[in-house]
Structures are given as structure tokens and as C-alpha cells.
Amino acid sequence: MEKTGKDKSDKEKKIEAKLEKAFAKKQEAFRKGSSEPADLLSLLLDDLPFKSTNKSMKMETFAMVFKTFKKIKVGDLTQLTETLGEDKSIDLLKYCFKAFELVHRQDQDVIEMISFPLCLNYLNVTSEQFGSIGIARTGFERGDLYD
After folding, report:
1. What mean pLDDT is reported for the chain?
2. What does the record list as coiled-coil region(s) (predicted)?
3. Percent of the chain having pLDDT more than 90?
4. Residue among 2, 46, 5 at smallest CA distance from 23
């Protein structure tokens, strides 16, 4: 049985509702700011809005991820990948690659928000932890992260 436009629309609405609920939880945790940065990043990297049509949600998630990531020390990156696990570590790497892309577009807001040395060090750590497959996954699985 072929899916109708209504079936597809209903599915998209369910996905959007789930993402909005997760987003509200992330906003609350981010505002409280009481968690350790690694724990907060783990929460922020749950239910990412890759499939959302809400650009504002995507942009705010991007900002929360990087404002939290910036609090991590370079020496703690290996521990961060262990805390996050492979999938969330790769998702964070996707955000780093998106940041590099946005800087190339001269996006001043992103340039001020991002710690590029931290992103480069994180790229090295994830390569050591997960091998080149981790970097390959970022290219093949990268969704619409920001715009």
C-alpha cells in the first residue's frame, strides 16, 4: 500500500512534535546550566533536529551545542568522546564541520561563537577514537544542521 500525502504529512507532524518536545527540554537544561558540560552536551545531542523544518530550532540547537562545547578543555576531549559514545561524538563532529562551512561563508555570528582550535583538536581525537570511518560518517549522514 502506497503512502498518501496525508500519511506523509501526519508522520512529519509527529516527528516535528517529538523534536519540539525534546528541544524544550534542552532549552530548560541549557538555561539552568547546572550540568557538567559533557553531560549537557550529551543531552543537547539527543533527538537532533536534522529532520525538522523549524530553522529557528536548528539555529538555537547549533548555538547551544557550541556554547556548551566551548567550555570543554582540550585535555578533556578524549573523556568527552567516551562520555558521549560513538554516535553522539559523530553528531558533534557534524556540527564542527558545519561550523567550518559557515565560517567559509563569512558568518560573523558563527565565527564569534566557535572555538576552532577546539574543533580541530576534537577532529583529531575522534579520528583516534573511531578511525577514519567516523569522519566518513559525518559526510554521509550530515543532515540539515543549521540552515
Report:
1. 88
2. none
3. 61
4. 46
pTM here? 0.86
CA proximity to 31, closest of 67, 55, 62: 67
Rama region for 33: left / alpha / beta (φ>0; ψ in -120 to 50; rest): left
Query: Which domains are assigned to the chain?
Result: 5-141 (1.25.40.190)
Residue 147: count of CB within 10 angstroms of its CB: 12
CB 82 within 8 A of CB 37: no
- Find all residues with CB under 8 Å of 48, minimum gap 6, and list them: 61, 91, 143, 145
Q: With contact defined as beta carbons under 8 Å apart, do 53 and 16 qualify?
A: yes
Cell of 30: 541549557
Task: Name the strand (E) or helix (H) holding 36.
Answer: none
C-alpha cell at 140: 554521509
